[in-house]
Amino acid sequence: MRLGRVQTADGTVSGTYENGTVKTETDVYEVDTDSNLLAPVCPTTIYCVGRNYAATLDQMDYERPTEPEFFIKPSVSVHPPESPIPYPSFTEELTYAGELAAVVDEQCKNVAENDVDNILRGYTILNDLDALDQPGRTARKAFDGSAPIGPWIETDLDPVGIEMQTTINGNKRQQSQTDLMFFKPREVVSFLSKRVTLLPNDVIAFGSPANPGLIEPGDEIEISYEGIGTLRNTVVDSTTHNETE
After folding, report:
1. Residue 109 pLDDT > 60, yes or no?
2. pLDDT-based confidence at residue 244 (cuts at 50, 70, 90)
């Protein structure tokens, strides 16, 4: 089942996504006709795992981690699918990373790996935007709109062994599968839960294959994960975007 959120004339609505519509118990909203697709979740925190693919280590000359390495993006990083991404004015080196992400469904702590499925709502896709020329990981990754999420949450998915790809303007830039992760999703969720209390709607992203290169205004990013769908956004000039809002 796919869970989606849309902005409608009635406000923000959550429901089941089916064939271009979001259905609630009483209403049906057509996406792009009488509603706009939002990020499927509003997390308090986004936990992102880095250095989780061998190709990334080889490209960046990193050492292989002995346990998951993670960093945090704030809630203001969330950006909806299909919505233009303003190119940040403070960077000249913006890159992206197509990542599988889990959505937490209930408050939990010290979750055993075998119990992880019981505390997750499902899986979605996250684009880890990164301003490479900024000093330090937080300045690079924690800014408004730095985490496009969507297009929906898939509740019935085994996250191990699924294919992914990222294209820019139709050109393939990333292609891999989740079997190649050093630390698999359930292991990562369990690991994090032993350090922090996970809250409902928190998002946990599991890393990306090798750094795919820079993006510029006008580029269309499409990140696809088997069994979920495609997260799509276009990068726009921030000045032009602000003038049209």
Report:
1. yes
2. very low
Structure tokens at 240: 């032009």
Please give, one letter per residue, the 3-state secondary structure of 73-91.
Answer: EEHHHEECCCCCEEECCCC
Pick the CATH number of 39-244 from 3.40.50.720, 3.40.1440.10, 3.40.630.30, 3.90.850.10: 3.90.850.10
Other Cβ atoms closer than 10 A to 239: 11
Distance CA 131, CA 94 (A): 5
pLDDT at 183: 96
Single out the residue of 170, 176, 167 nearest to residue 226, CA to CA. 176
Distant-in-sequence, close-in-space partners of 12: CB < 8 Å, separation ≥ 6 = 5, 6, 38
Q: Residue 64: what pLDDT?
A: 81
Q: Where are the domains of the chain?
A: 1-38, 39-244
Residue 197 pLDDT > 70:
yes
Q: What is the DSSP letter of 146?
A: -
Report the C-alpha gap between 164 and 185 in whole angstroms.
Answer: 15
